[in-house]
Design brief:
The protein is α/β, with parallel strands linked by helices and 235 residues long. It has one domain: Rossmann fold (3-Layer(aba) Sandwich), CATH 3.40.50. It has five helices and nine strands. The protein has a nine-stranded mixed sheet, sandwiched between helices. Helix 3 links the parallel strand 3 and strand 4. Helix 4 packs across helix 5. The longest helix is centred in the last third of the chain and has 17 residues. The protein is globular. It starts with a helix and ends in a 10-residue tail after the last strand. 42% of the residues are buried.
Amino acid sequence: MGLKVEEFLKIGPGDVLSFVGAGGKSMLIHSIGRRLVNEGRKVLIAATRPFRPPEDEKPVVFLTDERRFEHLLPHLGEHGLLVVAPSEAEDGMLAGYPPRELDTFLGVADYLLVEAEDAGGASLPMPLRDRDAPDITTVLMMVAGLDAVDDDLEPEAMGATLAAEEGLLRCRPDIEKRVLLLHKADRLKHRKIGARVAKAALDALPASFPPPRLILTSLRDLMVPLEDRESGDRE
């Protein structure tokens, strides 16, 4: 991808990106954070509930309850990306912050990325989930894993689920910038499935809800705007 992540996602320094949904959120958050750092930005990653950072990323974790907050800045300057959490359990799980407390980190880094939902390893975001996108969110990143589509779930049914009354696309319509990331689009067939899911979701979404920007993503760091999918379908 020739564009920088900022240009691609239409974000800028000071934005708070909150990730909700299911289907590889943690890996996606760290992938975006890593790419922003490679482009010269400083990034903090936090969560609103217990979480475990991807082991293969080996991020630097800063426990704010155990070290003075001002000590965060030298670590951020050295590493570019930090995971912040109030505490860590013996099993390696990190505690999350109450959403209202995340404004503490505003202005500390160029970007704050927030994991705001625990999907329990699922790929399909289900209705009635408790989503904790903080009020400081400027960009809502809604994630769904395309591997949820199988013999028992057609792409059109997945799209309808995303747009259902308590579905993912109904989350926080008050946030102006909203992005639907159809994740795990690793192969051409998955990208074609993603196009069907997106069309069904938008067709089912009431006109009163702002339509999100649609992006296909994969574990290979692929990012393709759905409107440009034909040019991005080359293997």
